[in-house]
Amino acid sequence: MISGYLAIAGERIGQGLSRELFAKALLRRFGEIPKVIREPGKKPEFADKGLGGFSVSHTGGLYLILFSPDPVGVDMEIPRQIRAKMIADRFFCPGEKEILEHSGYDRRCFFDIWTKKEALTKLSGVGLSGLSGADGTKAATTDLSGAVSALCGREVSAHAAPAGDVLIEIL
């Protein structure tokens, strides 16, 4: 089971607030702050592999962290006006481009695809360099958009990878 916490901050989440929310989530989850390591070219992970995996995303004043017994990836975005076609031409696979084109380049559709892709790259640990290779039309993810939107009271696009049951609480 994947579980996580959503924090709703009254401000944009910079590095200092992100660290504070990360520590708060770790304390809530484990009762202590376990050691986190980051090897060059890899995503951060717990030094104690028995603690499982985690993934963090923040957008605007929202912060989401997921914990899982296995590797996990999460991304969320507040849909906004963007140059969808230009970004899709650079990062989307043919099937994703086709879906976006059929939507009339709808921003919600764009961010649905984008958050799937980014959750998949965070799961694999390849980061943004892997966006063009991640195909959200062929991989299973869990759509967290409705749950996160309901918790924070605004429209949010969010996905977790791999697919599975996810429980999110307010931090």
Any key phrases for this structure?
single chain, alpha+beta, 25% strand, 171 residues, 4-stranded mixed sheet
How would you explain this protein's 3D organization?
The structure is a single chain. This protein has 171 residues and is α+β, with helices and mostly antiparallel strands. It has one domain. The chain contains five helices and nine strands. It has helices at 15-30, 84-91, 94-102, 107-124, 145-152, and strands at 2-8, 36-37, 45-46, 53-59, 62-68, 73-77, 142-143, 157-161, 166-170. Helix 2 (84-91) runs antiparallel to helix 3. The longest helix is centred in the C-terminal third of the chain and has 18 residues, at 107-124. The two termini are 18 Å apart. The mean pLDDT is 91.
Question: Topology, pairings included?
Answer:
Blueprint lengths: L1 E7 L6 H16 L5 E2 L7 E2 L6 E7 L2 E7 L4 E5 L6 H8 L2 H9 L4 H18 L17 E2 L1 H8 L4 E5 L4 E5 L1
Parallel strand pairs: 1-9
Antiparallel strand pairs: 1-5, 2-3, 4-5, 6-8, 7-8
Helix pairs in contact: 2-3
